Amino acid sequence: MKKVLLLKFGELFLKGKNRHEFLKMLMKNISKKLAGYQFRLDETQGRLILSQYEEELEDDIIEKVQKVFGLIAVMPALEFDATLENIEQRVLDLDFGDSKTFKVESKRADKRFAMTSMGLNAHIGGVILDKFDWLKVDLYNPDVVVNIEIRVNGKAYLYNKLIECCGGLPLGSAGKGLLLLSGGIDSPVAGYMMSKRGLEIEAVHFHSYPYTSVQAKEKVLQLAKEISEYCGDIKLHVISFTEIQEEIHKNCDPEYMITIMRRIMMRIAEKLCKQNNLGAIITGESLGQVASQTMQSMTVTNAVVSLPVFRPVLAFDKEEIMDIAKRIGTYETSILPYEDCCTVFLPKNPVIRPTIARAEYNESFLNVDALVEQAVNNEEIIYIRSGKDY
Ligand code: ATP
Ligand code: MG
Questions:
Q1: Which residues surround ligand 2, an ion (CB under 5 A)?
Q2: Which residue has its alpha carbon closest to ligand 1 atom 11?
Q3: Beta strands 2-9 and 47-51: pairing type?
Q4: pLDDT at 342
């Protein structure tokens, strides 16, 4: 008998030709996540089985695989030769905690096993009732389900605990995008959500040093490190926005300051995408949250780029975004009080319904191409390694 972890992945997306590719990617991502651990990973009939790890590291390993996109659940299980006596024996070792009701659910991929699934359920149910006399059977709403899987490798797997993972698609299966990462609550969540759909990410952060502090940048590095637990390694492009902001402040209508800033951020982002082979821009904008996040504002910012702009939290309330931030562990960092470059020279009344014509008129007082070029040429690159200090 040995302890193993059964890993459950989303079946739906695994139909047809893609199945093999997706699985290969998923297994590679799990192996990468567990780099440094000793383990073995096998696929059998719609399940992954992680085995031969050090038992005392099981909790650490579970915590890590929970963050691998594409997995739905991890089940700590016992593996043993599939004989009826073994199953009878092993169920007696199960921990039922505070549970009062249970049911047995068996799956029999190996039809050579003498009993039918139904027969096995009833028989093992009886064995459990004899030993744990406070338990009752409840077929419809049990506190705990005792699962028995009998696989064609001649092994039985027994488990009664299912730990949820993140779901989604394997990282890398949807290509690569560039996340506009501020120090706020929304953009780290946006990065997490797109990675959950299989997108690998690089990130860009704009700072206005010395108007913004060194701590503000440190905070962004910390956020990048936190999402890298899920999103994998991140190449972070740090761009100085100081001169651009000064130029806009000097030459443009204050009402249009944020609009022009956003358009220049987008242009820089697109240039970085071209240079680094990235296929989409990702932002943490949410419709109507602030003046710069109206439909008209997004039209005016989208107008300067040809790549798709993904805004995964567009339709989310702040509360909903905060809930995700808390769950993935970025919230506490995001609420640290350092200023963002967007808050420097902030106009009192930013335009709510900007137009492309007015934006272009304002930009005619700037040398936009040169500013973009210079900002990109002076970028600082920081590599964030998943799970490591930067
Ligand atoms: P967040 O919580 O992500 O900061 P926000 O609600 O504060 O968002 P804005 O400050 O208007 O909204 O920014 C909207 C989006 O623009 C951000 O989600 C982010 O994707 C991008 N962005 C804003 N400031 C920066 C910055 N300094 N560097 C990189 N991206 C930025
Ligand atoms: Mg912000």
A1: 182, 184, 340
A2: 292
A3: antiparallel
A4: 66
